[in-house]
# Entry
Amino acid sequence: MVHFPKLQADQPSDIIHQRDSSASSSSSGSSRKRGRCDSDTQDQRPRGKMSKAYDDVDTDSEMEALVCPTSCLQTAAGLRLKRDDRYYFEDGSCVFLVEDTLFNVHRSILSKDSSSFSTMFSLPQGNVIAEGLSDDNPIVLSGDTPDEFRHFLWALYALPPELLIVTTPSANLLHLIDIARISNKYSFKSLETWALDAIQEYVNRKPSPILSAIPSPQSYVFISDRDGQPRTPTQEETAHLLTCLIRLAQMCQHERLLNTMITLLRQLMVSSVQYAYLAMTLADELDLRVLKGAAYLEVMHKAVVVRKLRVDVLKPPAPTNASSSNLVHGDSSSTASDSSGEEGSLDESGRLIITRAQQLRLLAGYYRLTSTWDKLRTPPPFEHSHSCSATWHQQGCTQSWLEFWKEKTRSDAVMGLGLADVLGRLRLVQKEYDRWGSATYMHHDCRMNAKKAIGEVIRRVEDALPDYFAEPGGFEDE
# Structure
C-alpha cells in the first residue's frame, strides 16, 4: 500500500538527502546525520506569505541562532573530528565545525554578498579569543550537515566553467536545493537567487527531468541521486522532492518557482488521492490559498474520510443483537488502530486517514457546496440587451432562459455527479448551453450575456473554494 508519511517541519528526509558515497565512507562512526527538505530546523527564518517580505536584519541575536558557542563541542566529546577533504584549506582563515567535520575556508569569501558571516566577523571580540582560528576553537554551525555545507561552499569557490553545469542536463537538483537553503539561512541573497533560478530552469526543462509523464504515478523518472546515478524513484520519494521544492520556494519567497511547483502538484493530484492529500497538507502547513481549495476539493471527490454505515437501505434489516447493533463499520479495536495509523495512508476499508481538523474542513466544505447548489436552482441573472428591453421580446427571452436552466440542471448527466460537485455540474450546464443552438424568443446579445453569467458563477465558486473549506463557522454566510 502506497502512502505518504505525515508532513512535519522536523521530519527527516533521508529519501531525498542521501549522502555522496565518498562522504559516507569517510563518516563512519560519526554521529547521526539529519537530512531535511529545506527549512525543517528551528533556526530557519519563519515562513510567511508571499506578500510579506522578510526584513534583512543582521543582529547579534540573529547570529547566535545560526552558530553554536564553542561549549557545544563538549556534547561531541566522544566524536572523532575530521577535516574535510576538499574544503579544509591550509591557508584558510576561519574554521567551522559542521557535525563532525571541520572546514577551513577564507573569511573574505564568506564575507561576500552582505552575508550574516560578514556581520559576525565584524563584531568586536573584546578580550575573548576569537572563535574559528584553530581546530580546537572552531565556529560551530548547527542545523546543517557536512554535505549541505560542502555543496554551498562549492558554489562559492567554483570557477565559471564549473558553474555552467547547472544549466545542463547533468545538473544535480539536490545539490542546488542545498545551496539555496544554506544561502537563505546565511543571507547570501545573490547566491540564493542564482540557485533558485537554476532550480526553476531545471524543473521547467522539457521533457521534465523530475517526471517523465503526467499523470501516471507509476511513470515518474528521477534524474539522479546525490552520486549522480540515474534511478527510478518510489512515489514517496517523488512526494518528498515536491515537498522540498515547495517548502524551499515558499521559504525563499521565489514566486515563480512556487507557482511552477504548485501547478505541477495540481496536475499530479488529479491522478492520485495520495498527491491530493500531499497538496492539501502542504496548503495547510504553508497557508497556500491558491492550492488549498483545489486540493481539498480533490480529496473530497476521491477519498473516503468517514466510516461507512452497516446499512443497506435496499435490503431488509437483519435481526439485531448485541454484537450487530453497531451501525458503523469497524469496532472499538479497529477505531483504536485507525487512530494510530499513519496520516496519509489508507486503512483496510480504503478510508484515507487524515487529521480531525482536515476532516472537519472537508465536511464543512461538503455542506457549503451542497448549499450553494441549492441556491443555484434559480438561474443566475443577466442583463438584457437594450434592443431586447425596448420590445415585448424580453419576456420570451427570460422564459427561454428559465426553461433552459431548469431542464439542464436536472438532467441525468448533471444529477449523476456528486451533490457537492458544484463546479462539475456548472461546467456541464455550460457545455449544454454552447450546444443549445439558436433559441426561440432569446435575443442574440442576451444569449451572450447569459453565457457570461454562467462563466462568472463558475469563476466565483473557484475563487471561493478555500473559503468553502475553512473551519466550521468561519464562512460569512453561516
